[in-house]
Specification:
The protein is α/β, with parallel strands linked by helices. It has three helices and 24 strands. Bound molecules: coenzyme A (COA). Coenzyme A binds next to strand 23.
């Protein structure tokens, strides 16, 4: 049985626990940097990296080394990447979580730690980078290249041949037209329709998407 430690104890954590159970994995601990109420009965809640380390030390005689998944949603892709580095260094393996009711093309390539949630579609020749989330009902069409630490929000639509840089967050229900390039760490507001390339670090909103005011 694959044992999973979830990093993050808020909403996305509950989604990943449900998915883990569905695919036969067991969530054995939740780690959060904050002092949180235990989110799940019977599952250890640990405080930060130090809490995780001492828990791992306590179970050093166990035959199973747990894997981990990052339960951090929103626009925190860079945080996911940084935390993954720390957990990899502890010798834990980063598990990919793919919902059985997601559609993944046979030639799509998903990097370590990818999450593809309920009803999402990943089409032919798509590549998805490390620590990226393709959230509920999002669709990523043919030949898209998705970077590391990206979050494609619920119901977002990426048409074909789009390039998405590292750390990008595409908000819920946004649509990105074919062949667009989105620079590193850009944010696409919920519901936006992106018709032009988006420079790195910029937030765009609306239909058609424009740079958010005050930027
Ligand atoms: C675009 C976004 C990142 C901006 O966040 P923010 O900087 O905190 O923005 P604010 O809420 O302070 O709003 C600033 C202005 O932008 C407007 N705005 C914010 N989001 C917008 C959106 N998606 N579309 C159009 N306008 C938007 C606000 O109305 C506000 O306008 P005003 O100055 O005229 O009042 C955020 O609103 C968003 O869309 N996030 C995506 C959320 C999401 O999809 N989550 C999925 C979770 S799984």
């Amino acid at each position: 049985m694959t044992e999973v430690v979830l990093w993050g104890g808020a909403g996305h954590s509950r989604v990943l626990r449900e998915l883990s159970l569905r695919i036969g994995y067991s969530v054995v601990a939740v780690v959060d940097n904050r002092n949180i109420q235990p989110p799940f009965d019977g599952v250890e809640t640990l405080r930060g990296l130090e809490g995780l380390k001492s828990w791992l030390h306590r179970r050093a005689n166990s035959f199973v080394t747990p894997s981990y998944a990052l339960a951090i949603g929103g626009g925190y892709g860079r945080d996911r990447l940084a935390i993954a580095k720390g957990l990899d260094a502890l010798g834990l393996s980063h598990v990919s979580l793919v919902h059985p009711m997601a559609m993944i093309a046979s030639d799509a390539v998903l990097a370590q730690g990818t999450q593809v949630l309920l009803g999402a579609a990943v089409a032919t020749c798509v590549r998805v980078g490390a620590c990226s989330i393709i959230n509920t009902r999002a669709s990523v069409d043919h030949d898209c290249i998705i970077g590391d630490g990206v979050h494609i929000g619920p119901g977002a639509t990426l048409c074909g041949q789009i390039e998405v840089g590292d750390g990008v967050f595409v908000g819920a229900g946004a649509t990105v037209l074919p062949r667009i390039r989105i620079g590193n760490d850009a944010m696409i507001g919920a519901g936006a329709v992106v018709t032009k390339d988006v420079p790195a670090g910029i937030t765009v909103v609306g239909v058609p998407a424009r740079r958010q005011r005050d930027q």
